Sequence to fold (860 residues):
Amino acid sequence: MNLSTAPVRLSLKGISKDYAVRVLDGIDLDLRAGEIHALLGANGAGKSTLCKIIAGLTSATTGEMYFNQTLYSPDGKQQAEKLGIQIVQQELNLIPTLSVAENLFLTQLPRRWGIINRRKLRHLAEKVLLRFRLDELNIDQEAGSLGVGQQQMIEIAASLNRQCQVLILDEPTAALSGTETEQLFSWLEELRGQGAGIIYVSHRLDEIKRLADRATVLRDGRKVGTYDLGELTTENMVCLMTGEERSSLAESRDHSQKSKEQQTREQTVLRVDSLCCGSLVRKVSFSVRAGECFGIAGLIGSGRTELLRAIFGADRAHAGSISLKNSERRFRFKSPSEAVRHGLAMVTEDRKKSGLLLPQSIRVNSSLCSLDKFTRFPGLIDRKQEKAETQRMRQELDLRCHDIEQPVETLSGGNQQKVVVAKWLLHGADVFLFDEPTRGIDVAAREKIHRLFKSLTDQKKGIVIVSSDLDELFETCDRIAVMSAGKLVATFSKEEWSTDLIMQAAFSGYMEPQNRQQARQETARRN
Amino acid sequence: MERRDSKITTHLQEPSRGAHMLRSLLQYAAMVGVLLGLVLIFSLMSNNFLSMTTLTSIANSIPDLTVIAVGMTFILIIGGIDLSVGSMLAVSSALLGVLMADHGWSLSAAVPCCLLATAFCGLFNGLISVKAGIPSFIVTLGMLEIARGVAYLMTDSQTKYIGSSVEWIGTPIQGMFLSPSFIVAIVVVIAGQFVLSRTLFGRYCMAIGTNAEAVRMSGIRSAPYSIAVFVISGVMCGLAGIMQTSRLSTADPNAAVGLELAAIAACVIGGTSLMGGRGSVINTFFGVLIIAVLQSGLAQIGASDPTKRVITGSVIIIAVLLDAVRQRWGRNR
Fold:
């Protein structure tokens, strides 16, 4: 079918979305019948939000959508599904305790007077599995007992089985094995032949090159443009996403060699040696000097958080080792308490879930790690000292509150983050691990935390920062390493880094087919 | 929220010491108010209620529930529950009876054995639920059956009369109107509140109940503390067993069936959260007093047993409702 003459299935006109800030700004997009349309962009570019708007999961602040030339403004996922717009989201949405058959027909279980017609359900489910060549699966098995890849395939099959004129896939192959991916692609070809439009979101540029007809690139919530895949190379896709001039990745690898020599001269405070943990941390090695701020960049899901957790003992690493302060002793921490005893501290990504005791006071939260320092025999807390130290932290970090007895849940995000930081500063450590230290906090607090990095490095502490905010890494770090598909693929020093190089490196792990195959097999084995 | 913070930022002075004192007293004011209200109602309804006899009889009937409720408060604060307290009390009572009545042990030799036995039950509860990650509801439900069975086995399902060698513990001291049991219970309450609010142990218990994952990621090993809390609950049950036995002069393997519910009710009336992370031993004690005053007051005005149950149940629900309202009010202030 000639695409330029094909009817337009879905058309977006000036779609904008505001949360606290504007995340999508005036997006126009045409999806034609029989087209696979890729949506490209770095972390936080607005891809997932746009998908959710189309699927009726959230509504746009301004702008209009037209589905088959009629105005379309869904008030929920159900309505979109009824019209024939299906979405398969990044995270799995199967109900793990229900059977495969029940999950396939969850929204339209065959029933009479509210009683599920089991025989009909089995019959229908068998037909679906046969149609999608998934018949090796048992329809009575609990969905939760299947591998992640198989669950994803069932979810996709369920949406394909409904009437499907527009299909949105958000990172569908992240959990799939090689053969499952091939199978998925053959379904998509089939669907394309039936005249459906497909929106395809993926970090994997090779898949996009192979599948897609056109690609729309988003950057910081704005549309950069829509391109025919014929006119795009992998390099200029990355350039369009990051908005910087291209330069060669190979060159940068030479540079990283050079900086390695430099770093050995000064004292090393943390050395990580081929650390492996789960399928997302694969043989990672790096070292951090005293007084150095070491950044880790990468796409979401590239294993950055998992790496920090493995170092800190929050997850058990299964191979590799960690050594501290130039000592020859090698560790693989079994628990955070062990890591803390050896001089590590970690500010986690999700401060509400794993950083703070929300209903407790600022004082209780700040002193949590270092309580033993304030404790006199026999287990009595010296409240005066505890208060004094908390006050000192409050001054030092410019913590905005009216009283240190205030529950931390009443503070703003930035001040909450300062409390988490205060907790570790009071305890003290040789190496601080920060996971997304300034996510979701205001500019002033961010500034304060960046200044704190500076004062920590002045005290010859080592800092490791994981951040999706490249500007933050540029501002604060001495070196930036890039993780991609679980591996540390490149390290840049101050003179050699650029957004472009880092983004290229971030995508690189997903472009080597051999590499990817291996990752998938590992995922499949683990599941 | 941003805006609210920035408004307050500029001045750093603390509220005065007096304000702090007032706030901590206010914490208890609600409980004291309810308690006084109940006493007032019953003294209006019955002429005999507000008398020394009634008050001493209430005071001397609550020590066992009080100490158990103190242990339960700690359990609830770490986010657990202990359903086996009644049965553990029975084990302690039964063991005391067997050792003293059948084997002729002295009180001072038998008491440590009783405490040790229930401490062991608590240790079992704690180890299994913390180390194997099984909800304490399930483990202690099992222990509820096991310990009760053990109590029956030890005594051949018979009550054992011990007599005057234990009686003195539960009888008022001459001229003081209060029994040694009651004094011990008060000491336990004060010690419990002190441990909870002033020590590392108490602080960690609060922290574990509030957010166990955050505690773990702060590099604190929570397992020893959680297990210790279950052991403490066990020891409290042992103590309560001795108190109850002394009050009746008799060891009874049938004792304290359903006591776990009264203990949980006392904690909840006192504002302890079943979700963990919030609670106060002093308020639990007020909870115990409220239940005791209700029981004895209703009995004095001649309420039938079914009526007593309906009213007690209603008071529990009203207390929790009031607490929920107070919490919400406190948050929106």
Remarks:
- Chain A touches chain B at residues 312, 314, 335-337, 339-341, 345-346, 348, 353-360, 364, 368-369, 371-372, 375, 379-381, 383, 394-395, 400-405, 410-412, 415, 423, 427, 442 (CB under 8 Å).
- Chain A has three domains: 3-242, 249-343+429-526, 366-427.
- Chain A is about 40% helix and 25% strand.
